[in-house]
Amino acid sequence: MNRTEFVIATAIILLVAFAMGWFTHWLLHRFTRVAGGDMAEMDRLAQSLHEAEELRDQALAYMDQREAELTNQLSQTEAELKAAMEGLRDARHEAEEMRAYIERMHANG
User: Domain check: are 11 and 42 in the same one?
Assistant: First the structure.
């Protein structure tokens, strides 16, 4: 292979590589291109997504607040129940003492 044939072969290889690169670029550009109408749609979708995320954050904050309120209410109710059970226990004990006292009074009298 002489020098002229080498230069021609190299030129052809470079031309084919350039053509393949250009064609690949054209295909990628063709398939990934976003039209103006599509861009408006993407902006609308992005805005909707942002609003949905804000609503989710608000809902989570409300749920956390509500959970804290209900936990507090449950604690208060449990404390009231405990106090009521102690009062009932004391009342039963007192009633039992009164019965025993009355029975003794009837037995002596």
Answer: no
